[in-house]
């Protein structure tokens, strides 16, 4: 997990009421429900099949009965959940449940307090306003693995790591949010989904955990 920023700043957030997620019923659960936590490497698609020149989940995941609960873009890294339980998949991935997703985001430039407050309050994108988020500056995550290929760097432009938590999952949302405030994303790692954490998993590694629902 990351080292906390030494700045002492409190997270930028907007207070809002949390809606209570309703549990989907009527769907039988498998006799052996599985939940797999996987650290998806950069460049890997969140699917088990693809063309010969595409990297997929197939070489990494030894189960043939699980499928991704949600998505993670090819050029993003980090936590992906897979399950054989349709009810659990729905609770993890359906937008109505607003399960928090936390990302470590390396952005170009140093965002000001005012700019970070924009992220917290909501950003206007081409598909509408984003929901309130939580964001805080952070140091580079501890024991961070190198990305292959490395990010593009400009020596004349500094960069900053942010810890950003959102409760929706629009297409390429985090990248679009940081671009909208003038700080393009250089590297994006999903660190947590709800109660599940990436901690201890290197790229390409997975572990199975008991489903909590």
Strand content: 25-35%
Summarize model confidence as the mean pLDDT. 88
Instruction: Report on the biggest sheet.
Output: 11 strands, mixed
Radius of gyration: 18 Å
Distance between the termini: 25 Å
Strands, count: 13
Shape: globular
* Helix and strand run: EEEEEHEHEEEEHEEE
- The number of helical runs is 3
Structural class: mainly beta
The helix fraction, in percent, is 10-25%
Low-confidence blocks of residues: 15-25
Task: Describe, in plain words, how this protein is organized in 3D.
The protein is globular, with a radius of gyration of 18 Å. The strands form 2 sheets. Strands 1, 2, 3, 4, 5, 6, 9, 10, 11, 12 and 13 form an 11-stranded mixed β-sheet that branches. A two-stranded antiparallel sheet has the order 7-8. It has helices spanning 86-93, 113-121, 173-180; strands at 2-4, 12-13, 35-40, 67-68, 77-83, 101-108, 124-125, 128-129, 134-141, 159-166, 185-193, 196-197, 206-209. It is 12% helix and 30% strand. The protein is built from 3 helices and 13 strands, in the order βββββαβαββββαβββ. The longest helix has 9 residues, at 113-121. The protein has 213 residues and is mainly beta.
Features:
213 residues, mainly beta, eleven-stranded mixed β-sheet, two-stranded antiparallel ribbon, 3 helices, 12% helix, 30% strand
Summarize the structure.
The chain is mainly β and 213 residues long.
């Amino acid at each position: 997990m990351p080292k906390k920023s030494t700045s002492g700043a409190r997270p930028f957030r907007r207070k809002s009421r949390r809606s209570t997620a309703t549990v989907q019923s009527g769907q039988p659960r498998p006799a052996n429900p599985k939940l797999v936590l996987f650290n998806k490497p950069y460049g890997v698609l969140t699917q088990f099949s693809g063309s010969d020149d595409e990297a997929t989940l197939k070489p990494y995941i030894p189960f043939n009965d699980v499928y991704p609960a949600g998505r993670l873009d090819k050029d993003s890294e980090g936590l992906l959940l897979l399950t054989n339980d349709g009810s659990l998949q729905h609770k993890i991935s359906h937008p109505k449940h607003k399960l928090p997703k936390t990302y470590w985001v390396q952005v170009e430039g140093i965002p000001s307090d005012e700019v970070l407050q924009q992220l917290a309050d909501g950003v206007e994108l081409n598909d509408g306003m984003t929901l309130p988020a939580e964001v805080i500056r952070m140091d580079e995550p501890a024991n961070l693995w190198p990305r292959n290929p490395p990010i593009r760097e400009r020596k004349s432009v500094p960069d900053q790591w942010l810890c950003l938590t959102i409760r929706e999952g629009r297409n390429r949302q985090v990248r679009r949010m940081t671009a909208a405030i003038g700080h393009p994303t250089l590297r994006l790692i999903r660190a947590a989904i709800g109660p599940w954490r990436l901690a201890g998993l290197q790229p390409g590694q997975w572990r199975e955990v008991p489903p909590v629902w």
